[in-house]
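Subject: NADPH-dependent glutamate synthase

B.,
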Amino acid sequence: MYPIVRREQFSETSFLWEVLAPDVARAAQPGHFVMARLYDGGERIPLTVADYDRDKGTVTIVVQALGKTTREMRDDYREGDDFDDFVGPLGLPQHVAKVGHVVLVGGGLGVAPVFPQLRAFKAAGNRTTSIMGFRNRDLVFWEDRFRAESDELILCTDDGSYGRPGFVTDALKDVLERDPPDLVIAIGPLPMMHACVEVTRAFGVKTMVSLNTIMVDGTGMCGSCRVTVAGAVKFACVDGPDFDGHAVDFVELKARQKRFKTEEDAANADYAH
Ligand code: FES
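Prediction pasted inline below.
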């Protein structure tokens, strides 16, 4: 069993769990993900690692309550509760090296998995520019943590209620024009990552994305997380989740992400809360 040693609510739908899992914490690196399962027979949920503390033996995940299981996580599990499975770290870690100027873009919940990458690129001696994007002020989290690791921080809200008004792609374009980066990392909803990739493509700047595909086993067996990268079939769970965004077939991936929508809608409707 895995105890939740800390829980923090960021907004009505988003929250953080710090989970005691010493074996996972010992091996976790930026870019890794974990598979959580609440109880026997429950759904397996892939979650990108948002932080880890090897001394405390904890791993932090940030969750958005959108589907049945993530709403159960929000409504039924409190600090001190425990749950059945926390498997990981899975996937390949991000390749972190000193490349010069790195721009890290996080959209919504994607801000969380960007954080360990930001910290690692900073520690590797890079100059870091962070672009954080949220729909509105109420959804903002970890501004202080990002400020501490960033040479420049640009915080955007879609509705202009805090920071720079508008989308992360506009801020990204500005940075590309005035202070060209050597590498861009973009993590967030698929449409946001796709849009970032199209912005950087025109500037020829390498852009890594973290693909939050539908996953079932997380070990390369089921094919659920299949994605086409540079014309070849890849599995996000074992070949990723980080890929060169300019090589990803986002149009195909967006279509594949919708294939369980009927079942997801039915499970959500059945959920009593
Ligand atoms: Fe099954 Fe990747 S989740 S192959």
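Residues 215-218, 220-225, 235, 237 surround FE2/S2 (inorganic) cluster (CB under 6 Å).

T.
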